[in-house]
Design a protein that fits this description.
hpI Integrase, Chain A, 3 domains, mainly alpha, 307 residues, 3 strands, elongated
C-alpha cells in the first residue's frame, strides 16, 4: 500500500468516526489516488486535482465541482502531514447549487393527503401511509429517518421519538405532540394485531410485514398527490420532502407572529431537525416570500418604535 492510499484510509476513517458517511468520497477518492500514482506524482497538486475532476467528457460543471471538492477536503487533511501538498483553491470550478423553493403544505393539504390514503388504499396500507404522512408533517423528520424507525424507537412513556439512523450519524430525540403519539400508538396496535409474530423490526411496514422502501413510498405518495387533487398546483408541485420544509417554515412563521427572538431560537430548531448547525437552518429564513415579508414587517415595527 502506498503512503497516499494509506493516508486516504486514515482520512476516511477519521471522518466517518465523526459521523460522516462519505459514500461518494469512499467511492471516488481511491480513483483519484490511482490517478496521482499513474501520473508518477510524489504529492497532490492543484493541476492533478483539476485534471482528475474534469476528466469525464460527459460530466457536468456541477459534477466536476463536486469531484474537486472531494479532493480539496482530502488535500487539507494530507497537507498537515505533507507540506508539499497543494490545496485546490475554492475559487476553482465554483458552482453554487440552486435549491428549489419548496412547496408549502397547508393544514388542508396534509389532511387531503391523509384522507386520500385512508380512502384510496387497502385498509392496512392506508393506515400506514396516513400515519407516516401525519408523522412527517407534524415533526419535520426526514423520510429516511421515519422509514428507519424500529419498534422501540417510539417511547410512549416519555412522549418522544428516538432517531438513531440520522443523517451524519447524529442520533437525537424528537418530542411528540400528544395527538401524534396517540396516532403512532394506534398504528402500532394495528400492526401488531396483523403481524404476530412480527416479520420485521421496522415500525412502519408494508402489507407483507417488511420494512418500507423509499422508492415504493415515493411512488405511493405521487399517487396520493393526484388523488388529493394537489398534482396541478403551480408554480411548483408538492414533493414528499417538502413536508419537512413546511414544518420548518411554519415553525419560523409562528415564531415571527408570536414576536419571539427567532435568531435566538434557530439553534433549537436546528437541533430538532438534526441539522449539522444553525447555518443550514438559516436557509429557511429566505426560502419563501411569506417568511421574508413577515420578517420585514417585524423589522419595520422595530424601527418605528421610539428609542
Amino acid at each position: 500500500m502506498t503512503r497516499l492510499r494509506y493516508r486516504l484510509g486514515q482520512y476516511l476513517q477519521v471522518r466517518r468516526a465523526l459521523g460522516y458517511k462519505l459514500e461518494r468520497a469512499g467511492r471516488l477518492l481511491p480513483d483519484f489516488v490511482t490517478f496521482v500514482h499513474q501520473a508518477r506524482a510524489a504529492f497532490i497538486t492543484t493541476e492533478l486535482a483539476l485534471a482528475w475532476a474534469t476528466q469525464s467528457p460527459r460530466g457536468t460543471p456541477a459534477w466536476a465541482a463536486a469531484r474537486l471538492s472531494l479532493v480539496r477536503g482530502f488535500a487539507q487533511y494530507v497537507r498537515a502531514l505533507d507540506p508539499r501538498t497543494e490545496i485546490p483553491p475554492a475559487t476553482l470550478l465554483p458552482h453554487h447549487r440552486l435549491r428549489r423553493t419548496p412547496y408549502l403544505y397547508s393544514d388542508a393539504d396534509v389532511r387531503a393527503l391523509m384522507d386520500a390514503a385512508h380512502a384510496s388504499l387497502a385498509p392496512f396500507k392506508g393506515a400506514t401511509y396516513r400515519t407516516l404522512l401525519g408523522l412527517l408533517a407534524s415533526t419535520g423528520i426526514r423520510v429516511g429517518e421515519a422509514l428507519a424507525l424500529d419498534h422501540g424507537d417510539h417511547d410512549v412513556a416519555d412522549g418522544v421519538l428516538r432517531i438513531r439512523h440520522a443523517k451524519f450519524g447524529k442520533a437525537r430525540q424528537v418530542p411528540l405532540h400528544p395527538s401524534t403519539g396517540a396516532a403512532l400508538t394506534e398504528y402500532r396496535r394495528l400492526r401488531d394485531r396483523i403481524f404476530r409474530p412480527p416479520r420485521s423490526p421496522s415500525f412502519f411496514v408494508s402489507r407483507a410485514g417488511t420494512r418500507l422502501h423509499y422508492k415504493n413510498v415515493h411512488t405511493a405518495f405521487l399517487r396520493l398527490v393526484r388523488t388529493a387533487g394537489l398534482a396541478d398546483r403551480r408554480p411548483r408541485r408538492p414533493r414528499l420532502h417538502d413536508l419537512r420544509h413546511s414544518f420548518a417554515m411554519h415553525t419560523l412563521r409562528d415564531w415571527y407572529h408570536a414576536g419571539v427572538d427567532v435568531e435566538a431560537r434557530l439553534p433549537w430548531l436546528s437541533t430538532y431537525l438534526g441539522h449539522v448547525g444553525p447555518a443550514t437552518t438559516y436557509w429557511y429564513l429566505t426560502a419563501t416570500p411569506e417568511l421574508v415579508t413577515v420578517a420585514h414587517r417585524r423589522l419595520e415595527r422595530f424601527l418605528e418604535e421610539p428609542s
